[in-house]
## 1
Amino acid sequence: MIVGERKSLEDIRKMISGYRKVLVAGCGTCVTVCFAGGEKEVATLSSALRLAAKKGGDGIEILEATIQRQCDIEFIQELKEKVEQVEAILSMGCGAGVQTIAETFREIPVYPALNTRFIGRTDEQGLWSERCAACGDCLLHLTGGICPVARCSKSILNGPCGGSKDGKCEIKSEVDCAWQLIYDRLKALGQLNKLEEIIPVKDWSANRDGGPRKQVREDMKL
Amino acid sequence: MVEKKNPFSPKIAAFCCFHSAYQAADIAGAMRNPYAEGVYLLRVPCAGKIEELHILQAFEKGADGVLVLACPEESCHYISGNIRAKKRVGHILQLLEAIGLEPDRLKIFNLASNQAPKFVEVVKGMAQRIKDLGPSPIKAGDSGR
Amino acid sequence: MKSGSNLEKILESGQFAVTGECGPPQGADRSVIERKAQFLRGNVDAVNVTDNQTSIVRMSSIATCALLNQMGLEGTMQMVTRDRNRIAMQSDIFGAYALGIKNILCLSGDHQSFGNHPTSKNVFDLDSIQLIHAVRQMRDEGKVLGGDEIKGVPKMFIGAAANPFADPFEFRVVRLAKKVAAGADFIQTQCIYNMDKFEKWMQMVRDRGLHEKVHILAGVTPLKSVGMAKYMKEKVAGMDVPDEIIERLKGAPKEKKAEEGINICLETIQRLKEIKGVHGIHLMAIEWEEMVPVIVKKAGLLPRPTPPSEVKK
């Protein structure tokens, strides 16, 4: 899922300063799972914004709404009635969500309450880590199901580099060396021979480097 | 003419774990052991049930201070609800700071169901602390400086 | 001859090679290079120039190599894949060769978080092995990675780094084999303090026959002080400094610590000369370049086979 984290209250307040009536919109999918922008987080942020506004001698009226997903226009339409009552929207969705709201309600400013950080998974409740870089050309079949593009700090395809120590990355000890993980996994699978092959240069044009991407299923279009 | 200021009487929201603090409060009451005025007891099944939102709402509704009263560390009836409560309080203190509320306005204590005197001591201590701090700065926005 | 460089000639003739290192300045002051060059001239066969080492911005390796060449030395251009994509790297290789640079060492590079621009984007379009392959393709097939023919083929002598002390230990030699398969002509290792581990690694190298396919130069760095030894042990990625070394330095009297460091270095070089498959040493006298002439002389490695060439102005 997409993992994001709420921006600081200070940054959020700066964004919406001057507005007296704001809609805080949450998303019921990824950001709910990582406790960043779901219904509860919408309520908490709204309360904090009201408190801070009051302390500052201002008032602010906040409408709250959480929809299933912010990346599908059909859900965003559900916000219409509330949107008509406010001066600005503060979206607690990921970057895709913020933009979809902005594209749907063009007459009203939309602000991001979150920093969208990565595609990852839940390691345990309260801890999420990055797994996928959306490079567009998946090579997990070559590396035992562990991604060197996302999990190696240098995205090396023929690793590890000389900085790998005790299974950790040179940049900090909290980061696992992806290539140690790959080595251990392939060893357990009896597939170490895969590492004797050189993985050739990557086609980064399939990644964001090639420009903003689109995907189509003609057969599914109405 | 010297205007006489109304003495500030703190309003404190005390989230009391049913298995410990709430019972201690009951005993204190039965023993006619007076604790401070203006303390609102909010009974919860476990301190771990308290969410950040509840604490914020307490301040929104006019609390000058908030207490979270949990079971002693090894005795939570739900194993680690009190540990969760401690973490949550720690987390929300950062948000309170960003809002502009002094960290002393939110405190967490552990006590057992038979510790009525401790309950009284904790509540009195909090009331004094809040008295010294003054009314919540949120309310200052209401009635002017 | 692939490149005709001095380093290549010495290695191919079976002589024990000595390479040195020159770290460029954090600015455009060429006098720093001139100063370091005087200690290296006549004492080494080629000089590695680091490429924004530890991600700290320094004078470029290509420019520094060109200056060294003018000063009568042979530069070995280090190129990391951290900062440049394949377009820029191949372009720099063309330029380097046109400037008379014939040796290149292909590396991934330290992560940018170590340096003075930790917020920069990192590139890593290629990794070190893919870069070796690219340079070899340019040299031997006369084509760039994209397939176009090259007008003026850069005939580089291709080097790569090896770290016998990084993890996973059993895999390091497999990775070395991949570098050789990709086209590495010579290897320079991380500096060696743990001789036992190095000898183990060399055995694994020989078991795969790699010592006959590639020239291995063993890395050596003299320790100036206990502080330096500790720093290397704790703060430098991929470094193995055994406690005995630190104890030895601690045990030496205050005025004699540096001398003890040199002694350890000389003992290391002596042992390295005797290991089958080691074809030379790579002497990295970090911030102690003035010791290079001393060490090379005491190790019995003078005179170098090729006299220093005329200083070109």
## 2
Amino acid sequence: MPVKIDYRHCIGCKRCYDLCPMDIFTWDEEINMPRVTYEEECWFCGICWMECSKRAIDITLPASLW
Amino acid sequence: MALERIADRVVETDVLVMGGGVGGCPAAAKAAEKGLNVTLVEKAKTERSGHAGAGIDTVMDFPRDGVTLPQYVKYWQERHQFLVGEGRAVNPNIGYRLGATAFWSLEEMEKLGLPMKWDDGNYHWMRHLWFHHAKIFLGVHWFDIKPIMAKIVRKKGVNVLDRTMVVDLLTHKDKVTGATAVNTRTGEFFVIKAKAVIIATGAFARSYEPETPQFYKYKMRYHGAPGAISGDGFAAGYRAGAELVNMDIGNCWDYRLRDDIIMPYGTLAHGDGIPGLVLAWTGQEIPYPNFKVYQEVERRGLDPVYRSIENFSEDYHKRAEVAIAEERLISLKLAEDRGFDPKTHRYELMVNKPHNFAILSGLYTDEYFRTSLKGLYAIGDACSGVASCGPAVMSGLLTADSMPDYVNEAGEPVTDEAQVQSQKQTALAPLTVKDGVEPMELECCIRYICERYVGMYKSEGKLREGLRRLGTLRGEFLPKLMAKNPHYLMRCLEVRNIMDLAELHILACLERKESRGNYVRTDYPQRGPSRDNMLTFQRLAKGKAVLEIREVPDLKQEYAKEGK
């Protein structure tokens, strides 16, 4: 998965869920944390990654884009 | 009233701005400042949406350094010529007006609170990409420009509807009177009654194949074409009856980086007047490359070709890094992951293919950004001739500035309930389809058709076959688009737009029976002089696609003689 959320560091601030231009995140009400639901729609703009104040998101290139 | 029964919400506004990007935000803010009631509809989230979502490192098109207006218009036109060769490719009066008001725009941008100055407190003028003697680029620190713009828009009292996608425009007689829209998270259906609509949805990018073999289909060839731009404004304008132009000629730069999205080198490499070296793998220098040169390079076994900035000064590399960080911070991280360092590695170049419709293509407007439909305006990349974020802001400010004149005379917008009902039906239909086709699958089929049957080297047989296949795909699968939730409903609506525009693209290519600039018809390899200054205009009339080839106006007499 190219976008990984580190749930140990995530504070549930919703920045990634709010800002993603492709809306690939959904909000999981049960754990009050984001989920990467539509990862195949990610286009690697890096906005979630750079806006995450806790550095809880990592983006890596999948093989098909290497 | 029955409208409330059809729609979940009815919004009444003076001006509807469609698209909250780098053009739409200043337009909305300025129109609100003028005392108008403004509603801004954005498919993503205004804080980080559009081309400038991750930032911008330069704004262009300020005629500085003693450049006269006629000279400026000439540069402006020459910039288009490598796409389409000699002659006028767009309405030159737009270029004139942008140039004539550029410094008014700059002042307005500062008044709005956009950071226009460099670290040293001065304007950071940079050279033009091709006309190195003219400094018409302005280097800016616009890493955070979208959060700044979003804040300004809200402060000015604009009603912002984020995560909302326009379905279609509403019309009454010959006038645009608003739009219908859906919320892409809740599925709510909106009717927005407006006296005027400004289309600011950027370009149309998702027409050709992404270069990834399997997933990540919304990734595009070029980092300037964000995944979200599916031509929503082009298509909505077209379906309402507005005229589109140059849908045959997409953007096709001569070269692109093989790993563009991963490591763009910013505008600095071009704009600071330091030419990068282009080398064959053998080390032999390749003079300014284009697709014809590349054919020769390939034939002689000299490819791949690389761009080298390895031996540039430490200072240059530092500045390049700032430029990249300003526009796409993640590039630096991904380049590091892949072990790429511009001080020791070279950027692989690939000959380009059409990747989006922005510079020449779009809604046709006059220099006041009025489309062929009353009450409908197009700014930024959505407007033919306006390209990149500088002119997007300028065209937005200019349009908003004159908006009260139109709005005060427009009268109350009349809404046709049957039209709203029919748009609602079209919009929400995919939610009830079972065992249908997923939007990404259908989109990939359309893009494969464009890649295989249009592509770089076009010919009549291929275009006809592509058109036939697209037609059967439309008949068979468009009604079967299915969406299990509002998110996928947005994708379905996008595919509907992409389908319409891909068809227009093929129809326009069929009628351009010549080769010019980077437009290649293998069955008509020569430039057809009868197509000089003659553009392809397309509109929908009584449900039929109408194509007209006619001359684009020349610079008006009163503009041509005025110097500065």
